[in-house]
Structure formats: structure tokens, C-alpha cells
Amino acid sequence: MSIIMKNKLIHDISSLWNSFNYDNNISSEEFEQLNQYHDLLKKWSKKLNLISLKNPNEIYFQIIDSLALAPFFKSTSNIDIGSGNGFPAIPLSILNKETDFFLVEPRKKRVSFLSYVKSTLDLKNITIISQRIEDFSKKNIVTETISSKAFASPEKIQEISFKLLKKNGKIYMLLSENQKFNLLESKYCVTLTKDYKVFDKNRKIVILNKS
């Protein structure tokens, strides 16, 4: 990432957080890890097509979008459903070293990439689970929070998450502007919905609390 892009990343993250009245700064170590993550994903995508590079700002957008959750995220243990290339779990894990993150992803190419990121960035607080979330959920493991970005419909995420969440546990979802959201009222209540914008894209945060 060029110096210009680095400065723009810092500015755009700060601007987004300021729109939430969240006053926090990224440390130099955290920023360097975000920068490394960006460069690794770009490098691996050229060989394995992990993410489309047609838009040169796509990875940049995904990092900022993931960090929209940072002002609201609080957890000691988090399961990231359908981690894919690591959004939002990797950016969140960089900023929340005290939280244990479990990244559940069945696709081998992406598991290899996530494992390399974990090793290269020395992210001791993440564990990569090479399984389908439907199979992982049968292990009677429960967590404080669950995160998800572009994995499945909000309704499916709610269904899958119910067994995995502790009582009063939370789901953190990042949705597109036009993505429909129907609450499973017998299982959850809405803690927060927040509209925001990254570049020219309208986005939405939805946080649910398990009843």
C-alpha cells in the first residue's frame, strides 16, 4: 500500500468512526498489520482469485467496512461465520487483541490464506476452523458474540447462530443498503441498527441480542 493510500486509510477510518461519535486512534502496530493484511490479500488474489481486483479499492473498501463494527464491538469470544477472506474478523481481531476469534471457513484456498495471515501477522488471538458452520454448530460450543459479513441471508444467520450463542449473546451483521432483514422475534431482539456510508455505498450495521 502506498504512503498516499496509507494516509487515506487512516483518514477514512477516522471519518467513519467520527460519524458514530467514536473517538479512538489506531496504533502504529495495528495500522501496520492492517496494511500487511491488505497487501497479502492483494498478492494472493492475483494467484488464487480470492477477491476481485477489477476495482483497485475493493480490498480497501472491505477493510474500512469491517471496521465500521469497531465502535460497537465488545466481546471476549467471537465466532465469525463464513469467514471467507477474513472480513470482518481479521480487521476486528487486529484491534481487539483481548478477544478470542474463531474463524469458520470450509473452502481450502481461503483456509490456507487465513492460516498464512495468522502466521505472518502473528495473530495469536485467532483460531481457524476448517469446517462448514452447519457442522461446527453441532459441537455444542457456545460463544459470547457472532460476526458475519456477506455470508448468507440475515434469517439464515439468525437460525445458525442461535445454538452457538450464550444467553444474551449478540450477533453483529454488516448488510448492504438493499438487503432485506426480518427479525426472528421469538429468538432475538434488536439492540442497534445504524446506517453509514463507505465511499459511495450505503451500508447498515445490525446488532441482535439473543432472547
Describe what you observe in this structure.
- By secondary structure, this protein is an alpha/beta fold.
- It has one domain (3-210): Vaccinia Virus protein VP39 (Rossmann fold, 3-Layer(aba) Sandwich).
- It contains seven helices and seven strands; from the N terminus they run H-H-H-E-H-E-H-E-H-E-H-E-E-E.
- Strand 4 (143-149), helix 7 and strand 5 form a beta-alpha-beta unit.
- Helix 2 (28-48) runs antiparallel to helix 4.
- The longest helix is centred in the N-terminal third of the chain and has 21 residues, at 28-48.
What is the count of β-strands? 7
- How much is the average pLDDT? 92
| Strand line-up in the sheet with most strands | 3-2-1-4-5-7-6
User: Which CATH first-tier class would you pick?
Assistant: Alpha Beta
Which architecture name does CATH use? 3-Layer(aba) Sandwich
Brief sketch in words of this structure:
The chain has helices at residues 3-19, 28-48, 58-66, 89-95, 108-120, 133-136, 154-164, and strands spanning 77-81, 100-104, 126-129, 143-149, 165-176, 188-198, 201-210. It is α/β, with parallel strands linked by helices. The protein has a single domain, classed as Rossmann fold, CATH 3.40.50.150.
